[in-house]
Structures are given as C-alpha cells and as structure tokens.
Amino acid sequence: MKQDFLQRMQDLLQDEFDAYIASLDREVYKGLSLNQAKCDIDFLKEQFPYTLEPSNFSSVGYRFDSSVKSIGNHWTHLAGLYYLQEPSASSVVDMLDIQEGDWVLDLCAAPGGKSSQIATKLNNTGFLVSNEFDSKRANILLSNLERMGVTENMITNAPVDKLCPLMQGWFDKVLVDAPCSGEGMMKKHELAKLEWSKENVDACAARQLFILNEAVQCVKEGGLLVYSTCTYAQEENEGVVYEFLKQHPEMELVDCLDHVKRTGIVYEDLDVSKLRRIFPMDGGEGHFMCRMRKKVSAGTSSKNELKSSKVDVEVSKFVKGQLGYEDAYYLEINNKIYMKKTPFIQLKNINILRQGVYVGEMIKKRLEPAHHFYLASRFINDYKQVVELTDDELAVYLSGNVISRNIKGYVCVMYKKIPLGFGKGDGMMIKNKYPKGLRIVVR
C-alpha cells in the first residue's frame, strides 16, 4: 500500500492502527444476505455447503468461512436464495427501516446487493427503483435482480441529474451508496490500492456531494435519505455529510440503528454520534453510513402512469395457464411483454432496462417465455405445471441437458420446491430452456 495512505490511516485510527495493519493479512470477510422472499434461514442452512453464522451487521446477513474460494455455481446461488455480500456492506439497508408498501430509490445500485436486500424487505409490495449510471454495471444489476426474483421494481440506466428531477417527492426512502475511493475494498481489489490518491479522494467527495444534492429532491416530506460509502476517508464521509447539511436545512441527521456500534470520527461541529463506521477490526472490510430525514417538503410531482397494453391472446393464455390467474398490468415494448401488480411508471427520455416481470417475447405471434418469469419470487408457489428434479437430475438440468418426463407444454423446473428455470415438454422429455450463459459444466 502507498505510504501516504498508511500515514492517513495512522492519523485516523491512532491507537487502533496496529490492529488495522494486522487485519490486512487476514482473508477477506465472506458473507451473504438471505433472500427471505424465496426461503428461510433454516432451509438455506440445510442446503448451503458451508456453515453459516449470523452477521453482526444485518437482520438478513450471515457469514461463512473466509477460506471458501467460490460458491457462485452452487444451485442455491443460481436460484437466488441469497446475494453474496461482504458482511459490512449488508449493514446499510437496515438503516432505511423499510416497511412493506414503501417506495424506495437505490440511486447508485450496481451490482445489486443493497437493492436485493431492499426488495426482500418490501416482499413484493410498494415499488423499488434501482438506478446505475454505467451501462455495463447496469446490465450486471439487471442480471442479479433477475436471479433474486425481484418483481415490483424498475431498473434504470441514467445520470442522476436527468433522473432525479423527474421523481420529486416520490420516495419514502432513498439510498445513496455512492461511488467512492474504495479504501475498504483494498484487500479484495488490487486496483483500489494502485489507484488510490488524495486527488481521487477529493474528486470522489465532490461527486458524492453532487449526487446527494440531486437525490434529496426525490425524498418525501418525512422520508429518509441514507448515505453510505465503502471508504474510510473523512473527506468522503463526515466531510460530505457536513457540507450537504449546510446546503440543505430541510434535512436533519437522525439516529442510526444499534446494529452498528462504532460512531463517526470528530469533524467540525457535526454530531458524529449519529454516524456509523465499520473497520476491519469490527468484523467487516469497511463501511460508513448515516441517515437523514426531510423536515420540509420541497414540492412533489405526480407519478406518470402508463396505460396497460392490450396484449396478444397468447400472452393471456400463457399466464393463466402457468399461474391460474391474470391479476396484472401489461406493457409491451418491442414485442417484449412485462407485467406488474400496479400500473407502470413513465419516465421520459430515461433508459429503462426493465419494469416489473419480464414475461417473454412475441415471436411470429408465439410467446417465447423468459427466464425471469420463472424466477419471480411473487409466483414461487403459483406455478401450475411443475417438474421437481431429483438429486441426479439437478446437475443435468443446470448443464443444459434434457430431462425425461411425460408432460407437455411449458413447465417450471424446481428443486426442493425452489424454481430454477423452465423447459418445454413434448410428452416424452423436457427441452431445457435454462439460459446458455448460466449453464455449468458437469465433470
């Protein structure tokens, strides 16, 4: 690590600096956040190949052995039963105090860990908007939220200064987990060490303040704005909060929850007792967080709803045949069919990657179902045509091979009553529709 960074850390931590240095030689902390919309912790503990212990930082967070190298191809991960997440990163969402029915904005959402936690707490109610400015990262966000089975949400790929003015006063809770210098990621990513500089810290702080200044207009009167980073730098943490509050008298710091004990570090006249920090000595790689409440409304704008599209009779027939009901709004975009429990939202000149459940695509007046439809947590107990895989068949299906079954039509393929994807039966075997990009090699 760069000497000037280490000197800054010594000045910041003082008597705890030696403990921080010792932490650098340990493995990166490993953890996950449970997707309660798909299973409970007792079921996951039975299926997960390693021992899980509760995290100190989250109501849905669990830790496992740091020596574990890879778990991404295990069926529990592919089915979206959890999101792999470093323990301290899971601490932030509890600060939002999500209630069912809330409207929530995750403004810097990729790769999707915190959005997936929010969706779990919403439990297919309310509405979640997950935004990511970088297009490549936005598609990773889309993939992760699909795997987690998120349904009542919208994924956008937009600059915050174009998106936020369209959503003034919409949200009960807003999260800004801001891009930062990543000092808490140095053990995990070598590039974070190499690219660190005081100039980059200052540039990140300026960008973070800019994002907060846009985000604040989206918060309802009485709503919460949570700000977090995975860096240690005071310029990006206490310093940003201090400058933001000076510019926004309508916002006030409120107490954080007690699941994180360490408070902020003295900065000007800021009440750092209402801020929270995590260092490696606390059992996580590093996080900063605070929450603020809007005292005064800055005005609201109405939500622009889209009328439900009239869809082809094949779509209605498919949904009713698979679920037994059709309680949904539909939207068709370029022959792709989406469905939601509530009306769709319109945002002009914003790149919307997905809204609601992606049902499938109309190809020559025939509906080709989408993988997302069969991973949606909202439908997990509703599929009418189901095939339950045996232990031997699990690897066969995940590798893309056919399954022998006397069944016709589209079927949800499950393992231990958890949806994995779908296939199409011809009366003798099921043609595998598991996405090629997700298939694993069976040795």
Which structural traits does this protein have?
Rossmann fold, 443 residues, 13 helices, 26% helix, alpha+beta, 2 domains, Nuclear Transport Factor 2, Chain: A
Structure notes:
This protein has 443 residues and is of the alpha+beta class. It folds into two domains: 3-294, Vaccinia Virus protein VP39 (Rossmann fold, 3-Layer(aba) Sandwich); 305-438, Roll (Nuclear Transport Factor 2, Chain: A). Helix content is 26%, strand content 27%. The chain has 13 helices and 24 strands. The chain has helices spanning 3-13, 17-23, 41-47, 75-78, 113-122, 135-147, 160-163, 190-195, 198-215, 238-247, 313-323, 371-375, 391-398; strands spanning 30-34, 53-54, 61-64, 82-84, 103-106, 127-131, 153-157, 171-177, 219-229, 251-254, 275-278, 287-294, 305-306, 329-333, 336-340, 344-345, 351-355, 357-363, 366-369, 386-388, 403-404, 408-415, 418-426, 429-432. The strands form five sheets. Strands 5, 6, 7, 8, 9, 10, 11, 12 and 17 form a nine-stranded mixed sheet that branches. Strands 20-22-23-24-21 form a five-stranded mixed sheet. The longest helix is centred in the middle third of the chain and has 18 residues, at 198-215. It is globular.
